[in-house]
């Protein structure tokens, strides 16, 4: 993880930034799957959580120069070029710190959980309601990207958590979204 590329969303009067970031992130995911890349990570340097949560307008790709070059020559940005500005590949600053950027999943909809339980346990919705109270629902303040599953076609929210900043990097692999539960990316 000694190099990076920044991809910045350009202002667009027709599409909100969150929609463009979802499209960009979806294209990245598809390319990481096709390349079977486990050596590329992502971060969102302008992310915010809380009531005004957002991934921001910049997606940063992290990896070796060879891994980033392989991704960028794959043509994955086709169709997005009018909506983004792509920086040149650069070396990570020497004094960069590190953090884990991971997917976080939540039980956010009690009714959906009840339907799922009823189906799996051959119960009625009333029986499932007895087992799953409304209190299981959580209000989430993490930023997210709205993506479409390529396997099921369903739309879902991918919540993204930026972990604590660390002094030392942690090696590991990244999933097909460029996220990891343990590996860090440079943070600067």
Automatic annotation (TrEMBL):
Transmembrane segments: none annotated. It comes from the Bacteria. Pfam families: Cas_Csy4. This is Type I-F CRISPR-associated endoribonuclease Cas6/Csy4.
């Amino acid at each position: 993880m000694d190099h990076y590329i920044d991809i910045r969303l350009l202002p667009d009067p027709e599409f909100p930034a969150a929609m463009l970031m979802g499209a960009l992130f979806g294209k990245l995911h598809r390319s990481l799957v096709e390349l079977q890349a486990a050596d590329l990570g992502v971060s969102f340097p302008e992310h915010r959580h809380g009531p005004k949560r957002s991934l921001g307008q910049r997606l940063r790709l992290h990896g070796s120069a060879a891994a980033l070059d392989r991704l960028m020559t794959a043509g994955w940005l086709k169709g997005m070029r009018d909506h983004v500005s792509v920086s040149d590949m650069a070396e990570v600053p020497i004094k960069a710190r590190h953090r884990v950027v991971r997917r976080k999943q939540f039980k956010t909809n009690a009714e959906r959980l009840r339907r799922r339980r009823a189906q799996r346990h051959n119960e009625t919705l009333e029986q499932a309601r007895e087992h799953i109270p409304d209190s299981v629902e959580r209000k989430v303040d993490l930023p997210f990207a709205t993506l479409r599953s390529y396997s099921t076609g369903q739309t879902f929210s991918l919540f993204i958590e930026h972990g604590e900043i660390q002094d030392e990097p942690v090696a590991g692999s990244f999933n097909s979204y460029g996220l990891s539960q343990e590996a860090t990316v440079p943070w600067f």
